[in-house]
Amino acid sequence: QVQLVESGGGLVQAGGSLRLSCAASGRAFSTYDMGWFRQAPGKERETVATIAWSGGDTHYTDSVKGRFTISRDNAKNTMYLQMNTLKPEDTAVYYCAAKRGSQYIYWGQGTQVTVSS
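Given the sequence above, the corresponding structure tokens read:
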């Protein structure tokens, strides 16, 4: 069982930066592949970025490539999403999740990111 808590969201102007954190409880954090997801009002949830358990393999959705960086510190049971050059279309609730097998089975409660133009 893993419990996830996101933090770091807020209101920022376009072009600004935020860093999201996802703190995990439990000793097995380092064994889970992890991901960041977001859902904007009226839209389906989308995968923003994913990272392997080792931190060595990362993937990004096209719209955030070059602007967002996913990382993790297994010693601190924490995953991060550094978001630079934010755009109004990045406005959404951001969730972190832990993957077991082929499914993301543990989810945080989400943190709101609002980018004003």
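The mean pLDDT is 96. Try to locate this feature in the token string yourself.
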